[in-house]
Amino acid sequence: MAKDRLSEVLERYEAVIGLEIHTELTSLKSKMFCGCPVEFGGEPNTRVCPVCLGLPGALPVPNEAAVEATVLAGLAVNCDIALWSQFHRKQYFYPDMPKDYQISQYDLPFCSGGHLDVEVDGDAVFQRVDRDSEEEYTARIGITRIHLEEDTGKMIHVGGAEGRISGAEKSLVDFNRAGTPLMELVSEPDIRTPEEARRFAQKLRLIMLTLGVSDCSMEEGSMRVDGNISIRLRGEIELGTKSEIKNMNSFKALHDALAYEIVRQADLMDVGERVVQETRHWDVGAKRTSMLRSKEEAHDYRYFPEPDMVPFAFTEEWVESIAQRVPELPDAKRERFMGTWDLPKYDAVVLTSDLAMAGFFEAAVAQTGPARAKSVANTMINDFSAHLNAEGIGVDESPVKPSMLAELVVLVDDGTISGKQAKEVFSAMVKTGEAPAVIVEARNMRQVSDTSAIEAVVDAIIAANPDEVASYRGGKIGLVGWFVGQVMREMRGQGNPKVVNEVLRRKLG
Amino acid sequence: MAISESDVRHVALLARLALTDGQVSSLQTELNSILGHIDELQGLDLADVQPTAHALEVTNSMRPDVVKPCLSRELALRNAPEAEGGAFVIPAMAGAGEDV
Ligand SMILES: [Zn+2]
Fold first, then answer.
1. Cα–Cα dist B62/B59, whole Å
2. Between chains, do A35 and B66 touch, taking CB under 8 Å as contact?
């Protein structure tokens, strides 16, 4: 979709967006209410038991670590933790839910009333046309609640188009995922643009990764984002009719689906039609949403307290003990990177937006010393990131280790090799996995910084080029670059450019 | 609090029960007599009694995050009317409630 069309619509309409984000607690060993292991994939129905198959008489017992992880997550996003809470049964009939109800939470969730601050910068600032400024800004997004529930099984529809249920002859059900601890976060409808929605989800993901409660894989479905979205004419207070968007399984899909939906709703309203309350499905290939079900088919869940489990009574002391376990969160880490090593905000944001990147940086700086932190940051943001992107790999998969990058930075910094040579060493490092010093030695790249050695070459060049020397002395000082080139060629690129420059200016001047 | 005929039909729909008109009428009577007991409770002075969903004075019953043995797949599928490739087979479902 053209950015122009979205901006044109956003000039007239304001979007009101709330997100529901499901996160599987994949770092736990066992399921929510039984001892079956939590894993991804595997042969169908090999991780099931009477509890997660919903067999009659089986009794669920909540996983203490899942409850703690949810409270930990709540504390990390500024929620209040309920001192009294319980599970409810949510009734609905669908074959991926063997009990015909899902154990979830209703009016007494573990966490409520939190918020996240989301920073928006760059091109997408334009989406907030009401802000009247192109400056970056921070939006505070309320978090209504976080509750704990069990995930469903997985279904494969056979015989229908694109594996969807319509037209399918039959469906195959695998309950390996059924009963996986699942945290659901519901945001307030405080989000105003697709970009804010994306940043909110990205930040939440980084926080969950930092807490170590989930691998948050949008591809594998361990983090799933649904959105509620309506639009209203600017200045209007009353909310429009909302649609719910599903199947946005990447951050780009989240952004694009919401942008599409804003324009779709505006198109309807512009010609005097009504937006219908319904659930819509994002088709990433066709880049559009289509109706999944209308409000008339909406569920009546008939929640009631789960009789098989007793309530939870937490003490302030217990909540405090969980609060002690909240690690350094992304915002704090970014501030520390800026404060401790005097990094610019941009560098700190890039380095702390990926846990492995931040860990790599800290390990490398531990070796180079804090004075070279900026050089480490530069090498990581430029050469290292380019290498990761080119290979399509994560930090941990790279042959380049923190000690190697640190060594490279030191070699440049102490003048052993030039910045230009460093690029060559970096490429060699990526290919061979060898340490920089080994590469420098093997290729005889050692930079010559020894003043007397450079002076000898400079003297020879000056003696061999009297005309150029005369022009330089006559005022054509731009010729210094030419002299540097001559010296470097003579030294096969191994002269320290800084020293070569110094010596040349001294001898010529 | 009386249960109407349409309440019975709505709950039957939610529970995917196909009731005959005769069953609707008899269930309406039965449900109303059960709920009649609630009316008796509502006649009591319960101002000082906390609402509760549980009769037990027990809280925080949890288990440690420890893996236990699962059922064998053979056993898990034993009661399934139909199985294929280790999965439970569900006949074609029409219409509402599609989730992907
Ligand atoms: Zn189980």
1. 9
2. yes
